[in-house]
């Protein structure tokens, strides 16, 4: 036990009229939305790294947080960090958490020593989980922080780094399975290039495709029943990363025969870096059949980098969950808070309040999305706009060739009249619910 969260009681739902900053105002896990408990829709997961491993630094300044588990280079501190993490899970009572290997254990002097440290922490996690209801949403490997990964992991020009990456992922998949994880994530933090002057793109893409096939093969070999997820990101730290966005990842999966084996873990902040909205990325993945899970954070729109802030825009979140609900909801995936405090937010209360606020925003967004679906206004507008495609003439046109279509247009039988897209009307409609 630690005293980091002393005097902070478990967060309770107190309703929208409460002024208690340490209570839920909108997230009521037992509330039924579209026939399912809110907790089962949202499937919240606390991210171990930003909440416990990040020390408050940024590109222009170092550590600002002073935690009882610092320094993070010792095994005894890794267990103190785990104690604090599970104490926070008890306060928030969220159903899941998730981790990178490098964030839960200290780096050893060799791979074998790092693995020994990792397995000891995983055993410690298993012991703590046995007395709680919290589960593992997913595990993943940090293959971007250490200098060995400076030129990538599976895309590295050095085959020994590829081998080290394969061994690292194997250990993380084993640990994820041991803890009953429901997914395994691969985020290619440096799977890209700084310059094409020293990059063989074709070789790197083929190696990345081979690596992911090896991951899928190992999943089946060990009987892991969870979902393999890839997380898109366009840039930062690499100039260009191969997993740029949802559409790029789908093309990659198709090329290497993985579209039926792998789904996507989408992050709002990464969508913004790619020049998209989060709803675009979710709708794209849903349309392509690869929507898996979401990282619910946001970027600062006045900053050009990945700031990983807690969500605070109900309209943005509502439209995201609208497309998730239309796709049938999150299956093995969940809503992971890959979000972090501002480096000036030093206190334990800040960490709890940030998660409470993010969970409340997601709850409000989910209820707004469900209300829009139940009302049916957007679906009615879509059906009206595309109604022409349901006619026999349109179906015959699709089945025919260019020459027949040309004859219909040339004869004047087809002479289209533009129709309003009614964007402003639909935006006003959405604002009724958010």
Automatic annotation (TrEMBL):
Predominant subcellular localization, coarse grouping: cytoplasm
Keyword Zinc annotated: no
Cofactor binding annotation: Binds 2 magnesium ions per subunit.
Family from the record: Belongs to the xylose isomerase family.
Key words of the record: Carbohydrate metabolism, Cytoplasm, Isomerase, Magnesium, Metal-binding, Xylose metabolism
Cofactor(s) essential for the protein: Mg(2+)
Record PANTHER family: PTHR48408, XYLOSE ISOMERASE
Species per Swiss-Prot/TrEMBL record: Shimia sagamensis
HAMAP family: Xylose_isom_A (MF_00455)
Binding site residues for Mg(2+) 1: 231, 267, 295, 338
Descriptive protein name: Xylose isomerase
Binding locations of Mg(2+) 2: 267, 270, 306, 308
The keyword Magnesium appears for this protein: yes
């Amino acid at each position: 036990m630690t005293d980091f969260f002393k005097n902070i009681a478990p967060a309770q739902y107190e309703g929208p009229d409460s002024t208690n900053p340490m209570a839920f105002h909108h997230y009521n896990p037992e509330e039924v939305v579209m026939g399912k408990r809110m907790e089962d829709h949202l499937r919240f997961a606390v991210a171990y790294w930003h909440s416990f491993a990040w020390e408050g630094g940024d590109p222009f300044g170092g550590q600002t947080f002073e935690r009882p588990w610092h320094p993070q280079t010792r095994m005894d501190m890794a267990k103190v960090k785990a104690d604090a993490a599970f104490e926070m899970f008890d306060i928030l009572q969220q159903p899941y958490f998730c981790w990178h290997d490098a964030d839960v254990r200290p780096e050893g002097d060799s791979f074998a020593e790092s693995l020994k440290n990792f397995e000891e922490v995983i055993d410690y996690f298993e012991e703590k989980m046995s007395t709680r209801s919290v589960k593992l949403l997913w595990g993943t490997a940090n293959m971007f922080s250490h200098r060995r990964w400076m030129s990538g992991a599976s895309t590295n020009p050095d085959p020994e780094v590829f081998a080290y990456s394969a061994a690292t992922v194997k250990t993380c998949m084993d640990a994820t399975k041991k803890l009953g994880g429901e997914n395994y994530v691969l985020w290619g933090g440096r799977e890209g290039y700084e310059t094409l002057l020293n990059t063989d793109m074709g070789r790197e893409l083929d190696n990345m495709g081979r690596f992911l096939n090896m991951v899928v093969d190992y999943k089946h070999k060990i009987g892991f029943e969870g979902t393999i997820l890839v997380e898109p990101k366009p840039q930062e730290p690499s100039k260009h990363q191969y997993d740029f966005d949802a559409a790029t990842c789908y093309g990659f999966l198709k090329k290497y025969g993985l579209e039926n084996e792998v789904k996507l873990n989408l992050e709002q902040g990464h969508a913004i870096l790619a020049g998209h909205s989060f709803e675009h990325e979710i709708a794209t993945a849903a349309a392509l059949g690869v929507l898996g899970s979401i990282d619910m954070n946001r970027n600062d729109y006045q900053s050009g980098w990945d700031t990983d802030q807690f969500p605070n825009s109900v309209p943005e979140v509502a439209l995201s969950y609208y497309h998730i609900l239309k796709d049938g909801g999150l299956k093995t995936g969940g809503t992971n808070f890959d979000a972090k405090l501002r480096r000036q937010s030093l206190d334990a209360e800040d960490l709890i309040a940030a998660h409470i606020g993010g969970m409340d925003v997601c709850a409000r967004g989910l209820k707004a999305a469900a209300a829009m679906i139940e009302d049916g206004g957007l679906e009615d507008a879509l059906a009206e706009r595309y109604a022409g495609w349901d006619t026999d003439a349109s179906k015959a046109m699709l089945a025919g060739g260019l020459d027949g279509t040309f004859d219909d247009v040339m004869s004047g039988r087809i002479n289209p009249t533009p129709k309003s897209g009614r964007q402003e009307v639909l935006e006003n409609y959405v604002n009724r619910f958010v």
